[in-house]
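User: Hi! I have a protein structure encoded as tokens and I'd like to know what sequence might fold into it. I'm fairly new to this, so please keep things simple.
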């Protein structure tokens, strides 16, 4: 009959965690490499960068900073005009 001690189970859990997070790290590095390779190829081909739509900004009447007209949220000041 197998002998399962707490120490052995803990070591097994640590090994599994190291393998799991190592695999996730390798996948993340590969995704970054692929994205950089695609970007280099796009720049070599002379393609324009993907455009993002412009967003209108409005000036806050209290603190003077510019915030997006859609999706603006409160800055935390008591007199901030934007909803939370």
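Assistant: Happy to help. Inverse folding works backwards from shape to sequence: for each of the 84 positions I chose a residue that suits the local structure. Here it is:
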């Amino acid at each position: 009959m197998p002998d399962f001690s707490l120490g052995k189970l803990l070591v097994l859990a640590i090994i599994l965690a190291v393998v799991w997070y190592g695999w996730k790290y390798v996948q993340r590095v590969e995704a970054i490499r692929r994205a950089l390779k695609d970007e280099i190829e796009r720049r070599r081909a002379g393609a324009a960068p993907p455009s993002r739509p412009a967003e209108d900004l409005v000036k806050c009447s209290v603190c003077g900073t510019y915030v997006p007209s859609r999706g603006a949220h409160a800055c935390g000041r008591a007199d901030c005009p934007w909803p939370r």
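A useful reference point when you look it over: The mean pLDDT is 85. Feel free to ask if any position seems puzzling.
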